[in-house]
Amino acid sequence: MKRRLPKPRAFRADPAPVLAAVILSGGESSRMGSPKALIPFRGKTFLENLLDTIAQSKKNAEAGKEIGCTRVVLGAHTKEITAKVPLDSSAIVVNPQWQQGQLSSIQAAIRSLRDVQTDGIMLFLVDHPLVSAELVAELANRFYASGRAIVLPTFRDKRGHPVIFASRLYDELLAAPAEQGARAVVWAHADEVLEVPTNEEGIVLNLNDPEALRRALTGA
Fold first, then answer.
1. Exposed/middle/buried for 107, CB within 10 Å: 0-12, 13-18, 19+?
2. Is the pTM of this model over 0.90?
3. 69: part of which helix (H) or strand (E)?
């Protein structure tokens, strides 16, 4: 009787590394008076605007250089935000130490990516919703093309967000001093920063209080 040989197993390649989008929305929003993630703007919330921008950016990015996964870091208003904005459970990162500041949320996001192969993270601030999908795609393309450790946009020579950090800087971000935050890593790698000039003022517009929001809505 002829012995049956086992069927060969299908080869499964490890997933290619991706660029991760991280939206930082863990703060208390004390100056705004309500969660900034839920502020209505152009028919959607701040958070929904950023999520749509990230999704749309994939259409403009070069193949293999687009954002591959998203994380939303929550803290002070987790229940309220998740109740009003539909988020995939895999995208939610809860930072129990949100009171320690923005760096703690960046660190929480990095830890959440330990099981995902990433080339880097693109950090978005939830109170900077005026960012276009075209710019996000351009930043991703420039990151891959340049090989730089840090890529960020500038408006009239002023640096803004979103900012990309290469994965080789994760350990430094995890060890960064709380009083300086991610800026300490930027300063330490000043010669590895690529600035991408843009005409989009939204990269520097921090809509973190009612007056700033009013000016953005009215153009005043």
1. buried
2. no
3. strand 67-74
